[in-house]
Every structure is written in C-alpha cells, then in structure tokens.
Amino acid sequence: MSEKRQIIRAETAGFCMGVDLALRKLDRLVSEGGQPVFTLGPIIHNPQVMSGYARQGVSVSDDIRQIPNQARVVIRAHGIPVDLEDSLLARGVKLVDATCPRVKRAQRLIQKHTAAGEHLLLLGEPDHPEVRGLLSYADQKAHVFEGLSDLRGLDLDTRNSYFLAAQTTQDRGEFNKIMEYLQGYLQTSLPVLDTICDATRQRQQEALAIAHQVELMVVVGGYNSGNTRRLAQVVDGVGVESIHIEQPGELPLEKLRSAGKIGLTAGASTPRSLIDVVYCKLLEIEGT
Ligand code: SF4
Asked: What spacing in Å lies between the alpha carbon of 168 and ligand 1's midpoint?
C-alpha cells in the first residue's frame, strides 16, 4: 500500500526583505516602459528569474562604460561603491537605488564613523560586491579580513582609533569572538556596529531544526547563490544528506521515493512560486 510522503517545509524559505524590495523596484521600472533598463550585476542569484527579466528586456552589466547615458539603472540589494554611483549620476543616468535598507544603514554608519576620523575593521569577503560598496564609504581607512586568524595577521597601528563592522551575511558567533579579541588587543573602547542581518541566520537555524527531523533535505536555489549553498552545507554538517536543486525537474525521484520524511528549504533569492512547485512535486511522490 502506498502512503503520502511527509514534507516539512521551512517557513523562512525564499526571498529576504532586501531581495523582495529590489525585485519590486525592478518590476515597477519594467512595467513603466521607456528607456532601456540595466542592473549592475545580476539583481538576484537565480538563473531562472534572471532569464525572465532578460526576456522583458532587462540587461545586466558589470561595466558602467557599457551603460548608455539615457539608461535607467537599478542598484541591486548589495549596493555599489560610491564612486560608481557618482560617475553614473554625473553622466545623467537615471538611478533607482534598490540597495537593501540594512546595507544602506551599514554604509551610512561607516561613513559617519569614518568622518569622525576612525578606521574601519570589516569582517567580510574582500571580493564580495557588498563589501566593495561598504569599503568605499571608509575613505581608504579600512582593513577587511575573513575571520579571527586573518585579523591576527594584520599589522594594526594601535595609535589609530578603530571601529568594527561586518558584512551583513557574516556569522554572529565569529563576529563576537573578533570583538572580544580586539577589545583586549586595542585596550581602548571600540565602537561596534550592529550590521549583521538575521535573515541568513534564521534560515540556517530553521534548516538545522528541520534537518534533525528528516532523512533528506531538498534545498532550492541558484547554484551561484552563496546563501543557498551555505544552507546545504549546514544540513550536511549534521550528517543529513542535502539535495541542492535549481529546478523542480532536477528532483531525484527514485531516491526521494525511498526516503522517510523530507525537508524543504530555499535560499534568500529563490522565488516562492518555485518553492511551491517543488513542494507540490514532493507531495506527489508516493512512498511504498
Ligand atoms: S540578507 Fe539581509 S541584508 Fe542581505 S539583502 Fe537580505 S535582508 Fe538585506
């Protein structure tokens, strides 16, 4: 006799607030019609969503020299360096700022502390677009490092005043260790900016809680989406197999048929409609 598969679906799966806002701004711009629309880099790390926008005439460019002066340009949720923004504005390009409000807040705070003469210590990935944007508000007075061991290798001039901040998606535990280390090392008061966004942590915690109750976990999202890949790693880390897919058609049906309970989660750049389709497909799989 066959029975329906039990699926535990994460409530936090799918778009975070920043991605949702950015896509709404882009949708509004596309629906207005008019001059060509560009995004500086992919607005979202999801190939299916990006192809949909390409069909509606949205172009992606990493190089501002390729963007015509009359274009309308959407700044994505990660934000952009301030000099790029200035050059686009100087050329008369219409900018639509879809920088996530949390990233915007981090940029403003960094600018404020830099103006007060402090040097930024930033926990983050040096090549990440959000980090490049944040650093641009620190007026060259910044060190970026990827963790405590990286930070220990920096030659910090203790005569400077420093402040500490993090890329929004960094791990709070690591950040707290770094803060304690710096407070001991610098022996002066260290302003600490609260810039970490809990959207990532909440998704990871829920994925972990579900992983403890299931045999297999399906993780939906772009292969190029860092936060989606990290969700799969979190699940693998507790010894539960994760299956990372971009499209419903990639579900390994045979394997899923022989599993007990199945978990389902998705990265912050995965549309709800896609998660719904995967959920329905999983429900249709019958056990034996
Ligand atoms: S993860 Fe957080 S900071 Fe990043 S875009 Fe989403 S809401 Fe904004």
From this structure: 7
Q: Whose CA is nearest to atom 2 of ligand 1?
A: 197
Query: Does residue 43 have its Cβ closer than 6 Å to ligand 1?
Result: no
Q: So which residues are the catalytic ones?
A: 130
Nearest atom within ligand 1 for CA of residue 102: 3
pLDDT beneath 50, residues of the chain: 1, 288
CATH class of the domain whose range is 3-14+198-287: alpha beta
Residue 222 CA to residue 50 CA, distance in Å, equals: 11
pTM of the model: 0.86
For residues 250-267, b (16+ Cβ closer than 10 Å) or e, as one string? ebeeeebeebeebbbbbb
Q: Do 3-14+198-287 and 102-186 have matching folds?
A: yes
The CATH fold assigned to 17-99 is Rossmann fold (3.40.50)
**pLDDT reported for residue 2:** 53
Going by alpha carbons, the residue nearest to atom 8 of ligand 1 is 18
- What pLDDT score does 4 carry? 64
Q: Is 200 in the pocket of ligand 1 (CB under 6 A)?
A: yes
Ligand 1 nearest atom to the CA of residue 197, by list position: 2
